[in-house]
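Hello forum,

I keep getting stuck at the same step: I have a sequence, I want structure tokens, and every attempt I make locally crashes halfway through. Rather than fight my setup again tonight, could one of you with a working pipeline run this one for me? It's a single chain of 460 residues.
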Amino acid sequence: MPAPDLDLAEAARRLRDGSLKSVDLVEAHLARIAARDPGLHSFVLVASETALTEADAADRALAAGDDRGPLHGIPLAVKDIIDIAGLPTACGSRRPAAPAISDAAVVARMRRAGAVLLGKLATYEYATVGPAFDGPAPPAVNPWNPERITGGSSSGSAVAVAAGLVRSALGTDTGGSIRSPAGWCGVVGLKPTRGRVPAAGVFPLAATLDTVGPISATVAEAALTFDAIADAGPPASAGLDRGIAGLVLGYARDWFAHDPALDARVLAVLDAAASELSLLGARIAEVTLPDYAPLERAGGLILDAEAYTVHRAPLDADPQGYGCATRASLLRGRTVTAADLAAARSAGLRAAEAMDALLLSHHALITATNLAPPPPVAPYRDGTAGWNPMRTLPCNLTGHPALSVPAGFVDRLPVGLQIIGRPGAEALICRIGAAFERATDHGAQRPPLAPWLRSPGLSP
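Reply #2:
Ran it on my machine without issues. Output:
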């Protein structure tokens, strides 16, 4: 098996038994990025020299008995709204960006865990809307089908993992920006509990909704990455093999089953996923969550208002410094009144109470990540695209942790299952996701190496 395809646990084992060096692992990842990413655009900056320097230091530390944990010597990457000292944080913008003075808190934690940073990954402009074609670089391409969008805004993170360029990466999630691209690229995305992961050094979109988390090839790898960046609490990587017999899972089917945007084939995939969880020993009970549309409106109002506050001064001074879709998105925040914002926050509190009440009698909730396969790219090129059909924003509004795992395919395009847990229950939702992952082959499937990705140096 090529070194970049080793899962994090196997790579860690080989680093420790001496059959693999971090330098060799990093070089293999860099070669794969050079071969595949020109057609994918997932990386906006590859820090080859510093990555090899960090890998050499990781090898020397292990040889000296300084083992920093499961990520020691492992190559990872981060979304380009997260600061890495010495590298620019461009946020997908056309504005010039100076090198960051210091690491974001999550990057500092990754370094303490021994991880090697390969570089920065593509984002929609300032983590707002997209994909856009008026920015400084082409948007990241969905490796399952280049004519379908990736989802966003952590587009580069999901694409890099799906295409085998890294096993795990960091993204951010304000309304679904980890879970949506994970679902549409066929990988795992974990939005942690609000406040569980520090946001210092991450360019904000809407501070009360923003969350940093991993996008990874498997649930176990997402859990390991989360454990490295999270504040103290139960490790998500503990007990992943315990199974789910006896758990009670609330299936929030009516949250999406009657939505006009739903593709009926997605409903069939998710019904099959619920049945699979039942076969694994969980008891599935249909539950009713608060109406989705009012929650999405409330979350959208908060997002718009807070994002406009962040960008008010530069937007007023130089509106043409923003892409068309980003500018229009940010300007919506001008119209949000204090009364609107207060009502939206109250709606969020009521939704959190309703979700907490359900989670008193259910170990977790399951529902859709997205309502349809990834939409075509063409409407984004001509500026006619609308809002993507997701079921993610309420968990940003309420602060609950949520995990998206591959659940199946429609027209050979991935579909995600979303698992929602009690605050602080990352370990439990990862346990549920891992059980589903072991019982199915959806997460093991990777996009074909289409002709438009091939190059002489491409490894299998």
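Residues 454-460 have pLDDT under 50 and may be disordered. If your local run keeps crashing, start a new thread with the error log.
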